[in-house]
């Protein structure tokens, strides 16, 4: 397993756990324990530094882990939406693509964009062909009346 894949797996796990109610309760308990211990330590600078350092480190690490998860989820959602727009209905193979790596998601998105462009060109050609046919029919009708 590559370093990127391991990081993405860990980021998903941590982001999932961070959003759980039990994690919030645990954090509240830590803060409450810290606050209750204030009188024991005389509200010293070291006592304050412990909570400041701890929260700073956790916040710093969580920003990167959650951002990684959000980036991949955003690309996955956009790709799914692109596919729904392109096809008019979803395909089962797009279910769960948020678990793919960034490279795999980019590759999938590129394929969707290429298919959409090819379909747009075919559609535009059909419209042009229909317009030409309509113009010829109209011209014949006008000529026949004359």
Automatic annotation (TrEMBL):
Transmembrane segments: 21-41, 47-66
Low complexity bias locations: 136-146
Keywords linked to the UniProt accession: Membrane, Transmembrane, Transmembrane helix
Disordered: annotated segments: 126-146
Residue spans of biased composition, Basic residues class: 126-135
GO biological process, one term: transmembrane transport
Name of this protein: Membrane protein
